[in-house]
Every structure is written in C-alpha cells, then in structure tokens.
Design goal:
The chain is an alpha/beta fold. It folds into three domains: about 160 residues, Sandwich (Jelly Rolls), CATH 2.60.120; about 120 residues, Glycosyl hydrolase domain, family 39 (Immunoglobulin-like, Sandwich); about 240 residues, Glycosidases (TIM Barrel). It is about 20% helix and about 30% strand. It is built from eleven helices and 32 strands. The strands form six sheets. It has a ten-stranded mixed β-sheet with strand order 29-28-32-26-25-24-13-27-31-30, with helices on one face. Helix 5 runs parallel beside helix 6 and helix 10 packs parallel to helix 11. It is globular. It starts with a helix and ends with a strand. The N terminus is likely disordered.
C-alpha cells in the first residue's frame, strides 16, 4: 500500500468540481448561513430532535476545529422559499455536506445517510418542501479512525433543490431471463492478507468457506522460513508455511503464494527494518525451490506464485549501482526458475505493483513507477522467454472507472509484446480495498457499496479474473476503520455481506440486465436447473448521492403467477446488515416483497438509499 497524496488531491479536486460539489463554488449559498450547535463530546442521544443543545458552541460554514474520535453538529434548518432563484415549494430539498473524515447524518432523529470525506453526503431534508417547514438535523462527524486529535473543517454545507428525476421518478432496471449470457463471473471470491493470520482454526476457515472464497493471496511467507542453529548454520523452518497451506485446505481455496520477504539471514545489507537484496541469489533461489517442493511433498501443491510485493515503491535495498527494476527482474528470474524446477506446471505472476500501471504524475492515472515496472517485466519476458502466466497489481480508493482503465491500459501494453500476450492467462488484483489507511468507511455501508460498485463496474467490467480483498479480519474492537472483511470477533462487516451476495446468492448464469446511470449499476443471473433468478442492484455515487426509487421488471418467467413465486430482497445499507449501525443485526438481512406478476413478467418497486446494495431473489414455490 503506497500513498500518493499529491496526485489524489488534484484528482479529488477535479472530481468535486465536475460534480458540482466544489467547496468554493457556492459561497453565497443559503446553507452557509445556517447556525449550527457544535460539540466535541459524543453521545447517541445527540441525534434526538428534542435534545437540549443550548450549551453548545454556535458555529457556521467554514468553522475549523481540532479534536479526537467524534464531533457533533445540530441545527433546525428552515426551508427557504427559493434556492438559486428557484421556488422550493413541492420540491425535494437537501444539504450537500462534508466535514471531518466522514460521518453519519440524522434527520428527525433517524439515520439518513453516512459519508466519507472523499464521498460527501446529500442529506435529504424533505421530498415535498414548503416554506414554513423546519427540519431538525444532527450530524456525528468522524475525526479519524484512531484516538489521536485531527484537524477538521466544515467544508461544505449547501442547501440545494434535488433533481426531481433522481429522487422522485422510478429508475427502470429491466431483466430478460430468456437472453442468456454465459457463466456469471465469481469475481468477489478472493482474499488477500499481509503477513499471517492471528489463528488458523476451523471456525475461522468456515467463515471464508461459507463466503465462497476460492483464492487467497498471502505475502510474508518466507520471512521466517530460515532459522539459525546454535552453531550458526542455517536450516529451513516450514512451520508458518504449513499452517497457511493447511488453512487453505480447510477453506477449499487456492493459495496465491506471494514470494516474500527476504529472511534476515539472507539479507546482503543487515537491517531489521528493511529487507535488502539477497547476499547470494542462488541461495535465495534454493529457498524458493525448497518451499515449492515442500508444498508438493506434503500434498498441498501451490499453483499460483507471485514474485514479491510492491517492489516498485523502492522498499527493497538494491545492489550497488542497480535500480529497482533491475533488482526486481533479477528477483523474478530467480523465482520463476526455482518454482518451475520444483513444479513445471506452476503459474508465475507479477509485478505486484503498488497502485496503477502508470508512472508518477501521468495524466492517465495513478502509479509509482507503474509503467516502468509493468513494461519492464513484459519486455524482459518477451526477450528472455521467461514465463508470465498472470499479471498482478494493487489498488485502493480509486473510483471504478480508474480501476477499469488500469486493466485496459495493461492490455494495451501487452499489444507491444506478442509472445507475452499469448501466454498471459489472468489478471489478479492481489490487494484491493476502500483505502490504504484506516477509515471508518471500512466499517460501514459506504465502504461496502464502494466495494460492490468497484467490483461490478470496475474489475468485472474489465474482465479481471482474480481480485483479492485486503484483508481477512480486523485487529481491533470496537471497529476502528481496519481493513478486515470480518470484525475481530468474527462478525461480518457490511462488505462481507456484499461478498456473500456476489459469491453465494447470485445464480450461476448471467442474463440480460439493463439499468445503469451515474449512481445505479445492476446485474442479473439465473439457475437453469431451478429457475431461481437473482438481480443485484447498487446505488453508490462518488459525490453527493441521492436516494433512488427502483422499478424492477423481470420477463421470461413462463407460467409464473403471484401464487407460485417467492420474492426476497437482501439489503445492505445504513440500517440493514450493518455491524456499525447495530452489532446485533450484522448478518445479511432480507425482507419478503409482494411483486405484481402478469403474463410471465414480474414488476417490483422499492426505494434504495444512497450507499445501498440490494439483491432480489425470485424463487418458484414448490
């Protein structure tokens, strides 16, 4: 994981401007005149409309402060007669809001929407405005995911009329189950873990088996594989590797073996805080060979071998006079020869880039020596005949269109290396997640909806075969913005419930599904053996997303009627299947719907708040 703050800052600013959410673009907006009550204390009672906040400080737009954990804003917002010269009567009116690192917004005491500072909120005050309406609003602001103090600003507070088409008119999602489109990719079936796990017991393995996890990428597998004897000689120690291989067997998934890191006895430059190139390349190659051979001999062979981890960031020390790329290519050459010596059928992959396939400051997208390393590895394999079975890189935070563009860019590079292009079988994102830093969005529906949109509109749309979610389980309780799919007590976070939708509940064969705009994305599938139909719909916006009304139609249901169909709707949103909102309701929840059915066509209407993922399941009653 590698921060690129300067590039991201420019990127986010551009996005905000395009979305009409620029902090400085509406200085005369009436929302800036709202007087808010403010405190850095924390209590969920503060969301109640009748709470007495008279002792709190009065602040307004642009207010800056420094505090830890949480802060609160409260106001009674009066709807004006006009906004930007337009009458508000009968319109939907809201506040575009951004403050702190994110937060949760309450209207009339009920949760309305959560947000992240990179994904500002649209707080819907009313769907039918009148000028005498006063709406109580309370906002709990996240001040970072740790206990330290952070600086923050009320950077956006704009009263707006919400686009009627977005919030009041139904959005059509149309499915035709007679138009079959092949197998549905199971792209959310991968995990990634930096370092080892806290335990490898049966209970923990069952969590991932039940999620349908089919591949699990792990790094740091060789770091402790070489130990010193009392006489100073060295020996191999496969204790850690064996635990991990057995854990993969319990899950029933493939291990993607990230060949890393350098055992300290092998470091050419001793430094406990930073790995170096090996003191002897042949000695390191023998370690890799013995690891592959050991896995085979114990009955747990490994198919996927990835050469190192994020070496493009410069973390490994180079031999004198070498640059990072030369070091990596030598490492890659050593690794593939060692692995193939043990198992000629094994797949070899790389370059495990931190971020995208571009160099720094490239207008096409983010990266750290990305093009240099991606093309460098391809050119090396083209010239030497070295294998490259799968291509790997990492990505965090980026919007789905950047993720899709990354895969497309790599395919463009491959066109220049025909021998390599002919042998590359898969793309694998061996780390991806909402953010490379701890962020509260990891704990709630914002990160889950982002993950769903990134998967469907990014990785799946680009044909990426093996994305690997980073990582397995949090190391803290209560939730503190850690990356885990599960909390430290093994309870599912919202992203785990989204993963379950994609992997377990979605039917196996894709069918035609039409229904997409800037916020809404959808996909549908069928089980040909049972007739079970599933439709997954996502409502996620990069900026100021609106609640939406969905009108789903499914045609081709021959012989179906209201008496022989059952319709379930699984939901992940601010209040459903959400450990952050209610620990007792952390498992995937569903409701029963009563659609209309006529002439083999089912129609169902329902509401989707922003940051919502829903899956409609249609079953034939027996």
């Amino acid at each position: 994981m590698c921060p690129m703050a300067s590039w991201l800052s420019l990127f986010i600013t551009a996005l905000l401007a395009l979305a009409g959410c620029s902090f400085g673009s509406q200085e005369q907006n009436l929302g800036h005149a709202i007087v808010w009550r403010f405190t850095t204390q924390d209590s969920k009672d503060f969301a109640r409309p009748g709470f007495d906040d008279s002792a709190w400080q009065s602040v307004s737009f642009g207010y800056k402060w420094k505090s830890s954990k949480f802060a609160w804003f409260r106001a009674k917002v009066r709807i004006p007669e006009t906004l930007e010269g337009k009458p508000t009567a009968g319109e939907a009116v809201g506040i575009r809001w951004n403050a702190g690192d994110g937060g949760e917004c309450f209207v009339e005491g009920k949760i309305c929407v959560r947000y992240d500072n990179d994904h500002p909120a649209l707080i819907v005050l009313t769907n039918n405005a009148r000028s005498d309406l006063v709406v109580p609003v309370a906002i709990r602001v996240f001040m970072g995911a740790d206990d330290s103090e952070h600086e923050a600003e009320l950077g956006q507070c704009d009263l707006v009329i919400i686009d009627r088409k977005l919030i009041k008119e139904p959005f059509d999602v149309s499915v035709d189950i007679t138009k079959r489109l092949g197998a549905l990719p199971r792209s959310f079936a991968g995990m990634s873990q930096g370092g080892g796990l806290g335990d490898y017991n049966d209970e923990f393995a069952k969590l991932f088996r039940d999620l349908g996890i089919k591949w699990f990428r792990m790094d740091n597998l060789l770091t402790n594989a070489v130990k010193k004897n009392e006489d100073g000689t060295l020996r191999y120690d496969w204790t850690d590797l064996d635990r991990r291989l057995d854990f993969m067997k319990k899950i029933g998934c493939e291990l993607i073996f990230c060949i890393s890191y350098m055992p300290e006895p092998f470091d050419a430059v001793p430094d406990p805080n930073r790995h170096s190139y090996p003191r002897d390349w042949a000695e390191f190659g023998e370690l890799v060979y013995q690891a592959a051979k050991h896995a085979i001999e114990r009955g747990t062979p490994v198919k996927y071998w990835e050469a190192w981890n994020e070496i493009n960031t410069g973390w490994m020390r180079d031999p004198p006079g070498w640059d990072h790329l030369k070091t990596y290519l030598t490492l890659y050459e050593t690794c593939w020869k060692a692995v193939r010596r043990a198992d000629p059928s094994a797949w070899i992959g790389g370059p495990a880039l931190a971020s995208g396939p571009w160099n720094e400051n490239d207008p096409r997208g983010p990266g750290v020596n990305g093009e240099k390393f991606m093309r460098g590895l391809m050119e090396h394999c083209e010239k030497t005949g070295a294998p490259l079975d799968f291509i790997t890189w990492h990505e965090y935070f980026q919007p789905h269109w950047i993720m899709k563009k990354e895969a497309e860019q790599i395919r463009e590079y491959l066109n220049d290396y025909p021998k390599v292009k002919a042998q590359v079988k898969e793309f694998a994102i061996t780390e991806w997640s909402y953010a490379w830093w701890h962020d509260r969005a990891h704990d709630n529906e914002v990160g889950a909806a982002w993950a769903a949109a990134s998967m469907l509109r990014g990785w799946m749309a680009a044909g990426v075969e093996k994305p690997c979610w980073f990582y397995a389980r949090d190391g803290c309780w209560p939730p503190c913005g850690d990356w885990g799919m599960f909390a430290s007590n093994n309870k599912p976070k919202p992203v785990a419930n989204v993963c379950r939708m994609f992997n377990v509940i979605m039917a196996p064969k894709k069918v035609e599904c039409k229904g997409e705009d800037d916020q809404i994305a959808s996909i549908a599938s069928i089980d040909p053996d049972t007739g079970r139909v599933t439709v997954l719909i996502i409502n996620f916006a990069e900026r100021c997303g609106s609640p939406r009304k969905i009108r789903l139609s499914v045609k081709g249901l021959v012989g179906a009627g209201p008496d022989n169909l059952q319709c379930k709707r699984y939901i992940v949103d601010a209040t459903h299947s959400n450990l952050w909102n209610d620990e007792s309701r952390c498992d995937l929840e569903w409701v029963t719907d009563k659609p209309s059915v006529s002439g083999g066509c089912l129609t169902l209407q329902f509401d989707m708040p922003n940051n919502c993922v829903t899956l409609v399941e249609i079953l034939r009653k027996s």
